[in-house]
Amino acid sequence: MRSPRRAKALLVAVFLALGGLWMSAVAHAAPPKAAEPATGAVAEEGYALGPADVIEVDLLGQPDFTTKERIGEDGQIRLPMIGTVQADGKTTAQLADTIADKLKSGGFYAAPIVKVEVTAFGSRYVTVLGNFGAPGLVPIDHPYRLSEIVARVGGVKDGGADYVVYRPRHGDERKIKISDLATGDVKDDPYVSPGDKIYNPPVDLVYVSGQVKGPGAFAITPGMTVRMALARGGGLTDIGSYKHVALTRDGVKQGRVDLDAPVKPGDVLVVGERLF
């Protein structure tokens, strides 16, 4: 029979052993995982909504009003109390203002606060044509700026103009220089929307021949004059004459040529010989 002292010592040893095992387990346990942030589509400022986008409309303090709706092919959504609302072409902020105005004018709320968010972007396309590395239909699954679309299609190839023609589905056609897409203000790098078209035409050329050292077709640079075009062709030969420069424009031979006048796309300059 164990003595009380030995029994007490045994209990203390067992307690210490169990305590050591517990501390070891705590030390080697993996730290708790941090909660992963929720992912979701976010419509950046300036993004125009379009058919197939799914949006959520919330009215502050009125959970029963919360609606998740896919924009139809007609560009409309249907909401409680106010019925159909045109969403196509509007930003989320603009649509929120439109809904708030309708709720106010309809007498439903005195000062409604509306929030609109995009929960899913529809599978839609931008049409990219012309002198790009890989022109075609570019899917738009979230907001892209024009520069990003140009980069996605491989940029402008040799022989392409130094600008793109941007024709939005909503708005006026614009010519935007490639250099402005990289270094200009954000107003020169708009967000594109489904149905927009982007085109890069061939570079504008002037044709120089006759008594010049390097005849050929040359890209027209901003402010290029007849004199500058002749210089681009290597300058005149020993028997060339500035007084005998012929200009054909739009298939029609022009009269006296002003060497300091600007050239136009498709101009043909022919330098004649001096009279000795």
Secondary structure elements and pairings:
Elements: H1 4-28, E1 54-59, E2 67-70, E3 76-79, E4 83-86, H2 92-105, E5 114-120, E6 124-130, E7 136-140, H3 146-152, E8 163-167, E9 174-177, H4 178-183, E10 197-200, E11 205-210, E12 216-219, H5 226-232, E13 240-249, E14 252-253, E15 268-273
Q: What characteristics describe this protein?
A:
alpha+beta, five-stranded mixed sheet, Outer membrane lipoprotein wza fold like, 15 strands, wza like fold
Short description:
With 276 residues, the protein is of the alpha+beta class. Helices cover 21% and strands 28% of the residues. The protein has helices at residues 4-28, 92-105, 146-152, 178-183, 226-232; strands spanning 54-59, 67-70, 76-79, 83-86, 114-120, 124-130, 136-140, 163-167, 174-177, 197-200, 205-210, 216-219, 240-249, 252-253, 268-273.
What does this structure look like?
By secondary structure, the chain is α+β, with helices and mostly antiparallel strands. It folds into three domains: about 55-120, 2-Layer Sandwich (wza like fold); about 125-200, Outer membrane lipoprotein wza fold like (Roll); about 205-275, Roll (Outer membrane lipoprotein wza fold like). The protein has five helices and 15 strands. It has helices at about 5-30, 90-105, 145-150, 180-185, 225-230, and strands at about 55-60, 65-70, 75-80, 85, 115-120, 125-130, 135-140, 165, 175, 195-200, 205-210, 215-220, 240-250, 250-255, 270-275. The chain has a five-stranded mixed sheet. The chain has a five-stranded mixed sheet with strand order 12-11-15-13-14, covered by helices on one side. Mean pLDDT is about 85; it is low at about 15-40.
